[in-house]
Amino acid sequence: MNRTIEPAAALRGEINVPGDKSISHRSIMFGSLAEGTTCVSGFLTGEDNLATLNAFASMGVTIRRIGETSLEIEGRGLDGLEEPSNVIDCGNSGTTMRLMTGLLAGQKFFSVLTGDQYLRRRPMKRVVGPLTQMGARITGRQGGELAPLAIQGTELQPTTYHSPVASAQVKSALLLAGLSVDGETTVYEPSLSRDHSERMLSWFGADLKPFDGGVTIMGRPRLQAREVQVPGDISSAAFFMVAGLVTPDSELLIRNVGVNPSRSGIIDILQAMGGQIELIDERNPSGEPIADILVKSSRLQGIEIGGDLIPRAIDEFPVISIAAALAEGTTIIKDARELRVKETDRIAAMVDGLTVLGADVEAQEDGMIINGCEQLQGGQVVSHGDHRIAMSFAVAALNSSGPVTIEDTECTETSFPGFWELLTSVRRAG
Ligand code: S3P
């Protein structure tokens, strides 16, 4: 479905964004492996998380949906999952596929994971390789690089793995595999990726030791059911943060957003660009810091972004590139090669679309160089089936000289049901 977004005179209002995608996935996974009933509130009912929910239901876990955003999960303990009678469809969700590959590798049964046309093109060796080193029996297309993946569960061995990429999905796959191991599993990463698995597994009672550069998990814990309050997703809030900054005469208050330091790179980046962003009422109700975020229209400046900041804002680069295109001066994004293997190649997708909208932008192998301008122009762009690309171009439209048509916008259901309605609700006439 195509959608056409008109430029906006102003954006104003107080909003809530849907629950955090990463925490929602993990609440089902860890809740299913715990003993007792885990109650989840603020759950994201996007398509990615429903893929995880259906996967665990197909392995015998009773999950009750209460209202739109609450769940009760009847945990089955570490050894309680049952062999699924059919192939598990992970849809578009890399997190579902990679984390479950780790978990299923150490189960006592056979399983197959597949996904949509985009997920079946994404690299899986990054988890299959180290899991094989632990003794896992996993096969897939192209020697285990591509899904579908067939997993014959087996007894795994303790391991120490030095990951070449800062990836929470790789780290979490190994931690989940490590749950079944009799002994310690250690993962090193080049810089810290999101640490929700570490925080939540500890909250559920696992013996986990994060240290500078990595984390160790002791296998065979008894996980205990917990209450999980899922905060609003900072990756979803990011679209409204940039929208509020680049649209004239705007002020938005985004309530109840998770501001875990391993995810809050977007705030540091936009503040460094001169964006007026204020964190209000910072709190920490259950192991994950939360704040309300106030943004006001600002004239942004180009900056250089690289190094440890990249994993802390990895999902936000599509919308950061919109902020950069509307900033004064040049923005250089580097060390971000990972963007090429997300839901789509996000460097190519943003460079192509921004060029259509009149921006001066150049792709680099590991990032992009963007020379900012005062205003973009209207035009027609493609999402490549990638939710964050579609929503980023909706933000670009707000400060364009003409309407922007975005092709294939259903994909926003992946992570942000209600995005288009929420955007309409904050628009103000000039
Ligand atoms: C995620 C980790 C990140 C991120 C993805 C969610 C997670 O992927 O891009 O949207 O929940 O662990 P990588 O581990 O590939 O960086």
Tell me what the structure shows.
Helix content is 31%, strand content 27%. The protein is α/β, with parallel strands linked by helices and 430 residues long. It folds into 2 domains: 3-19 and 232-428, UDP-n-acetylglucosamine1-carboxyvinyl-transferase, Chain, CATH 3.65.10.10; 21-229, UDP-n-acetylglucosamine1-carboxyvinyl-transferase, Chain. The strands form 6 sheets. It has a 5-stranded mixed beta sheet. It has a 4-stranded mixed beta sheet with strand order 4-5-3-14, with helices on one face. A 4-stranded mixed beta sheet has the order 6-7-9-8. Helix 1 packs parallel to helix 7 and helix 11 runs parallel beside helix 12. The structure holds shikimate-3-phosphate. Shikimate-3-phosphate binds next to helix 6.
List the keywords.
UDP-n-acetylglucosamine1-carboxyvinyl-transferase, Chain, 31% helix, four-stranded mixed sheet, binds shikimate-3-phosphate, alpha/beta, 430 residues
Coarse shape: globular
* Count of folded domains: 2
Tell me the strand percentage band. Answer: 25-35%
CATH architecture of the largest domain: Alpha-beta prism
Strand order of the largest sheet: 16-17-15-2-24
Bound molecules: shikimate-3-phosphate
Chain-wise SSE layout:
Blueprint: E1 3-5, E2 10-16, H1 21-33, E3 35-41, H2 47-57, E4 62-66, E5 70-76, E6 88-89, H3 94-105, E7 110-114, H4 125-133, E8 137-140, H5 141-144, E9 146-152, E10 159-162, H6 168-179, E11 184-188, H7 196-203, E12 208-211, E13 214-218, E14 227-229, H8 234-246, E15 251-258, H9 265-272, E16 276-283, E17 290-296, E18 304-305, H10 309-312, H11 317-325, E19 330-333, H12 346-356, E20 360-364, E21 367-371, E22 379-382, H13 387-398, E23 404-407, H14 419-426, E24 427-428
Parallel strand pairs: 2-15, 3-14, 6-7, 10-11, 18-19, 22-23
Antiparallel strand pairs: 1-23, 2-24, 3-5, 4-5, 7-9, 8-9, 11-13, 12-13, 15-17, 16-17, 19-21, 20-21
Helix pairs in contact: 1-2, 1-7, 3-6, 4-6, 8-11, 8-13, 11-12, 11-13
The structure holds shikimate-3-phosphate.
